[in-house]
Amino acid sequence: MIAAFRAASFVAASFVSASFVAASFIAVSASAQAPAAPSKGTPKPEAPKVDAPKAAPIPELRFERMLPELPLVRPIQTLQRPGDTTHLYIVEQPGRILVVDPSKRDTKEASVFLDIREPVNDGGNEEGLLSVAFAPDFDKSHKLYAYYTAAKPRRSILARFTVSDDGMTCDPKSEELILEQSQPYSNHNGGAVVFGPDGMLYLSLGDGGAANDPHNNGQNLGTFLGKILRIDASKTGAKGEPYAIPADNPFVGKEGAKGEIWAYGLRNVWRMAFDSKTGDLWAGDVGQNIWEEIDLIEKGGNYGWNAREGTHEFEGGKGDGPFKEPVVDYHHREGQSVTGGQVYRGKAIPALDGAYIYADFQSSNVWGIRMADGKSTKPKVIAMKRGELVSSIDAMHDGSLVVSTFNGGQEKGNPGSLWRLVEASK
Ligand SMILES: [Ca+2]
Ligand SMILES: [Ca+2]
């Protein structure tokens, strides 16, 4: 999210420019939504030969409001508990998780599942409770993982909590520290915590912050900053650490490298997700000056920052390739801060199956792409919600997608909303 994912001083300016961007995009989206009328009686022309891979078209979607009466503060993630489809857990950036029955549309109040506003520092626009994940063995372990920022000293924390037997509350006092990373600046903290199909915990950390990656963290394998980590949180380490480093991680045993690192050269991965069918790991890496990008994350991959921004050289950056190029990038004319999304695997919209759906926090464009022959189709704007800042797109157990937004501003404590992405034609 969060363009501030550039320097904090950029926030106000870039937010102001969002309305300008919105105006310039209406034309693009309008044409994207208007299919050519079929001509009568004339033979269908042969399809032109083009480089773009052939793939099934991606349907238009629209935002359908959920829980309109429920007051929320900067919602940044929604999720369901393993084995349960009747509750929705809503993560608020200041440090609370709420739980509601989403079928009760007019509900005005949610239960508080977890309140860690005390240890969480949300002083900076990109600070706060940033991501949570239930353990894959939740039925047995009742564990929840949370990634948040804390102050004095400024740092990022990955912690584990224990959830009550009924799944409805989580005791802040059950907190166990798993991993800590000192943070030089308030911005670029990542982050997302997700479990892979291999049962491992994947965590994205930004490059530390400021601008231009002043400490060259992205290319430095000796720090967690600017990385995606992969750890086994179900085991303890050889020296009693609260997690184990999987033996098949790419930099295990490499001199000067952290064994936890799975991929590097990342600026500020805001949201990543596994395709529940193929196991591919998709990430949105927030750019700095011009280019936002979507990456397919591979073991040991170097995603280029700060030598590269999107598919372009980043002036003044350092680093030796080979670099993994993004699947797609987009210019700041189209948005200023990517929000990585989800591969749709739901049953409700069969034509959407297998499409990767992602968004821009600032312009609120939602795009769809498909991979074919190892390449992406041309990104298509399939939905938008002007005036809403798209902080997250999350997949429920049935594959349906829920979008979290801030209502129009980035100021501290501002309200937010939840939406389902549904077929535009329905
Ligand atoms: Ca930081
Ligand atoms: Ca890159």
Small ligands present: calcium ion
CATH architecture descriptor name: 6 Propeller
Name of the CATH first level: Mainly Beta
How would you classify the helix and strand content by structural class? mainly beta
Strand order of the largest sheet: 1-28-27-26
Share of helix, binned = under 10%
Distance between the termini: 29 Å
Low-confidence runs of at least 5 consecutive residues: 1-43
Rg result: 21 Å
Overall pLDDT: 89
CATH superfamily: TolB, C-terminal domain
Per the CATH scheme, the topology name is Neuraminidase
- The counted number of beta strands is 28
List the helices and strands in order.
Answer: HEEEEEEHEEEEEEEEEEEEEEEEEEEEEE
The main sheet comes to: 4 strands, antiparallel
State the helix count: 2
Question: What is the count of distinct domains?
Answer: 1
Verbal overview:
- This protein has 426 residues and is mostly beta strands.
- It has one domain: Neuraminidase, CATH 2.120.10.
- The chain is 7% helix and 34% strand.
- The chain has helices at residues 10-33, 138-141, and strands at 61-66, 75-79, 88-92, 96-100, 111-115, 129-134, 143-150, 155-162, 176-182, 193-195, 201-205, 227-231, 261-264, 269-274, 281-285, 291-297, 308-309, 312-313, 328-331, 338-343, 356-360, 365-369, 371-372, 375-376, 380-384, 388-395, 401-407, 416-423.
- The longest helix is centred in the first third of the chain and has 24 residues, at 10-33.
- Bound molecules: calcium ion (2 copies).
- One calcium ion is lined by residues 285, 293, 303-305, 308, 326.
